[in-house]
Amino acid sequence: MKQEILKRIGAILAAAVLIFVFGCTKSAPVSQPAADQQTAQSDSGESAEFTGYNGVYHADGTNETVENASYATSAANENAVLLNNGGILTLSNADINKLGDAEGDFADGRNAAIVAVKGGALTMNGGSVTTNGLGAYGLFISGGDASFVGDGTYLSTSGASSAGIAAADGAAVVFSNGTIATEGENSPCLLLSGGGVTLVNMKLSSKSAALVYAPSGDGRLMLDGTSLAVAPVIDESATLWLELKNKSSLIGTFGESLPARASVSLDATSTWTLDADAYVTVFLNADAANANIVSNGFTIYYDSNAPENEPLGSQSYPLPGGGYLSPLI
User: Fold this and answer.
1) Is 2 exposed, middle or buried (0-12, 13-18, 19+ CB in 10 A)?
2) Beta-ladder partners of 115
3) Which helix H or strand E contains 88, and what residues bound it?
4) Whole-angstrom Cα distance, residue 306 to residue 281?
5) Residue 281 has what DSSP assignment?
6) Could you tell me the residue ranges of all domains in the chain?
7) 275 and 267 in contact (C-beta within 8 Å)?
């Protein structure tokens, strides 16, 4: 933990030096401003406008590979890295820094360190992403053809309303062997608005918000060798399919009321510990005895009309710890 804190502080100090000496600087291709207005197509077929994008590094339909780069900005509503129109970027050991507060609405990621929309695709190997400011997401990835793949990257946000990663409208995120740490108010590690995220051997921490927050859309989250010490928060207009595998764990309960907004799938090595009754649409467990459920006397209610639940036969089953797996009546 001490090493990660020192790393974050070092990254912020490095960003300040970069900004002071060079302004908004970079060590790779010349920056290009994005168009004043862009339109991203969501997986539901509805279009969403993204306005005012501008990037220190802007991959607009290009394909680049960069090593040991540094991109930093403190300008309001400016991204350190922006990818759109099929822009592809591979970064190795990059240092990405975003300082400063957003001006106006920042829900579309205009003040994020990194944005990928309209087919933008980013791959990061090692390196770090650090932000400190209001509405300064680490990454904002939106659209069914936009993606992020990270391995061994350290990601930290310090300001309010600054999610680590926001994945929206069918965007795909795969993050392995890294860290997502958030410190500001209303700053979850993951903000899922209809995106799909896979976390492999990841460490998550948030000081004042849920680790995972789904405000809207149909989201998917796969945990592979990753633990959630706090259950996802799912708003009424959202659903979440949560899959746990390879010794992943979940502590807590979501969907404590009807209608059920979550589905859960576990392999035999993963565990779910309840702290209240849970209502799910689909419940799949590779352990037929449900020995990997720590019920603490609480019940998991499942939708007996969901085709995926047919093997349960609309029956009730005892769970370890005194609770039950029961159909909704």
Assistant:
1) exposed
2) 82, 140
3) strand 88-92
4) 7
5) S
6) 2-327
7) no
Task: Name the amino acid, one letter, at 135.
Answer: G
Tell me, what's the pLDDT at 5? 43
Contacts of 74 (CB under 8 A, 6+ apart): 15, 19, 24, 98, 99, 100
Per residue, what are the HEC states of 228-274?
ECCCCEECCCEEEEEEEECCCEEECCCCCCCCCCEEEEECCCCEEEC
pTM confidence score: 0.86
Query: Residue 156 pLDDT more than 80?
Result: yes
136 phi and psi angles, rounded to 5 deg = -100, 80
Sign of CA dihedral 309, 312, 315, 321: negative
pLDDT band at residue 52, thresholds of 50, 70 and 90? low
d(CA 84, CA 42): 14
Give yes or no for residue 14 having a pLDDT over 60.
Answer: no
DSSP-based three-state secondary structure for 287: coil
Radius of gyration of the chain (CA): 20
Q: Which residue reads 């695709």 in tokens?
A: 121
Phi then psi for residue 311, to 5 deg, are: -60, -20
C-alpha torsion 168→235→224→187, nearest 10: 70
Task: Tell me the backbone φ, ψ of residue 33, rounded to 5 degrees.
Answer: -70, 145
- Single-letter code of the amino acid located at 40: A
Q: Quick one: which of 322, 277, 270, 320 has its CA closest to 302?
A: 277
Contacts of 140 (CB under 8 A, 6+ apart): 108, 109, 112, 114, 115, 116, 117, 166, 168
Q: What secondary structure letter does DSSP report for 92?
A: E
Q: Which two tokens stand for residue 313?
A: 């036969």
DSSP for 199-224, written as a single string: EES-EEEESSS-SEEE-SEEEEEEEE
